[in-house]
Amino acid sequence: MELFYRRYGKEGDTPLIILHGLFGISDNWVTFARRIAMEGFEVYVPDMRNHGRSPHSNVFNYLALTDDIFEFIDDNAINNPMIIGHSMGGKVAMRLALENPHLVRRLVVVDIGLKAYPPRRDHIKIIEAMKSVDIAGAKRRSDVERQLEKYITRERIRLFVMKNLRRNSDNTFEWRINIGGIEPGLGSLLDAVNTTAVFEKPTLFIKGGKSDYILLEDFPVIRKNFPNAEIVTIAGTSHWVHVEAPEVFYQLTMGFLTGNPDWFVNDKSVKKA
Q: Which pTM does this prediction carry?
């Protein structure tokens, strides 16, 4: 599948691929990508299948998502990239690195583990909210947001979902995200990554202090597949770590990816396991 992507930085600089999470879009990472590109990275930010401007498909599972990124690397002749993946994108990044360790130079996994997860009510609620909107009758973006508010009370999450809203040339609105393709596959996104494969290259796991996606008991499993993993918690943040603590997140990732021996941020909110 030929994915839409954004690219920042100079050709020939160290390649870095950023993979967004479920309901996300490449546009969510533009500010970060532009900034880190100035540190000597050629940054690629694709829209995953069924998201943003990438093609839609009724096949939506980690096998397909991981194959897409393998193809993306091959099609664009990206040599030995570093990868950052958040949530769903983090699980895709882990699978790719474990199955093809020769392809990936360094890995950053943001608030997701290898384990299976129980059904997430927040995912279901976002789908319900988007399906509930009278998209054909909306005249302004505020009309859509007002309808979403009945289901999604937190403004930050509403604005995140609204990134998927597109105004057409005839002034009507539509969702860029393929709800019909994603909804049947939600259950498969909760599956564990079960493998004895090992990725021995430098890996950083960043956990939100208020998030339950990575727990203390998950650390030994993570280190079994990623023996050189560093696990860092940013206090006070939820699953959207990079949104709620953008500066700390940037300093951690930039330092780690550049191989700076002093990459660990001396900040009271940051704790290394």
A: 0.95
